[in-house]
Amino acid sequence: MVGYVTLGTNDLARAAAFYDALLGSIGARRLMDMGTFIVWGTSLTDACVALTKPYDGKPATVGNGVMVALRAASKQAVDALHAKALELGGTDEGAPGPRGDGFYAGYFRDLDGNKLNAFFMG
Length: 122
Hints:
By secondary structure, the protein is of the alpha/beta class. The chain contains two helices and eight strands.
């Protein structure tokens, strides 16, 4: 099972402010902040999202086909998280809506171009 997902950024302070507001809107908070590596979640024993500048010192780039999926408690929560991402300067990659049998999702990119979605099963 997934323990955490790490996303790269070229501007840690800017990206951290985006994720503080975005993930804070679904009850997550900073669990670790080592200055160059930040982790958000509800508990270190649950899945988390982390952010860092690449270790190799090269610019962060978006992984083609890579996406972080954030579980939401309801369709309304998907709508709200998608809207929050856009409010914070993220870009739309697919408005919230049904995507198949019981799967409801909205897709967006963060300020560095990393692709995420908010989803609800049910």
